[in-house]
Design a protein that fits this description.
- By secondary structure, this protein is mainly α.
- The protein has 3 helices and no strands.
- Helix content is about 80%, strand content about 0%.
- The radius of gyration is 15 Å and the shape is elongated.
Length: about 80
């Protein structure tokens, strides 16, 4: 979901540029839904797998955090 959120931002930038928009559009709402909807999924994964396989689960969670940060970075850096 983080990769899809990042792709949404990158496609929007490629099509419309980085100029501030008057109103939040479909891309912004899609990004918000993707980023918000993944939180309970990641939490469920952590609760289920960290006790059973801590090393493997930690690697997956680190990848998830990295992907989320990559999706958040353009929004933060471009001050959207």
């Amino acid at each position: 979901m983080s990769v899809a959120a990042l792709a949404t931002v990158l496609v929007f930038i490629a099509m419309h540029g980085t100029a501030p928009q008057a109103d939040e559009g479909v891309a912004a709402h899609t990004w918000q839904l993707l980023m918000g909807a993944q939180a309970p999924i990641v939490l469920f994964f952590a609760i289920k797998w960290l006790p059973q396989s801590p090393k493997q689960a930690a690697v997956i969670l680190a990848l998830q955090v990295g992907a989320a940060l990559a999706a958040i970075a353009p929004v933060f850096l471009l001050h959207w």
